[in-house]
Amino acid sequence: QVHLVESGGGLVQPGGSLRLSCAASEFTFEISWMYWVRQAPGKGLEWVSTINFLGSSTYYTDSVKGRFTISRDNAKNMLYLQMNSLKPEDTALYYCASLFREIVGPERKNKYVYDYWGQGTQVTVSS
Asked: How far is residue 75's CA from residue 92's CA, in Å, rounded to a whole number?
C-alpha cells in the first residue's frame, strides 16, 4: 500500500519558485503531524519544516525561514511546501513524512522515527 506520494519537483533557476505536494492515503492524515525533510547530494538528511495536525502551528529550519511555507488541506489529505526565492543550496531530494506526534531536534533527521515516508521528489536549483 502507498501512504505518501510527493510531486512537484523539478529544475528551476535561482530565485524561482516551486510548490511541492504530498498526497496521503491509507492512514489518519488529519491527526498526523507532517514533516518535510530533504537530502542534498552526498549529504545526510536535513529537517526542513513541520506542521501540526490542525495546520495552526508551523516550524522551519533557519535556512528556509521567510522563503518556504508549509501548509495542509485535511479535507483533501494533502500536504504542501511552497518554495520561493530558491537557492542552489536548496537542491535536494525532498521527502514528506508523517508521525502521530511532534518530534524536535536531531530526531527529525532519522527516517526510522516516522510512521510513513514518501519516495521523494527531486528539486534542482541551477542556472
From this structure: 29
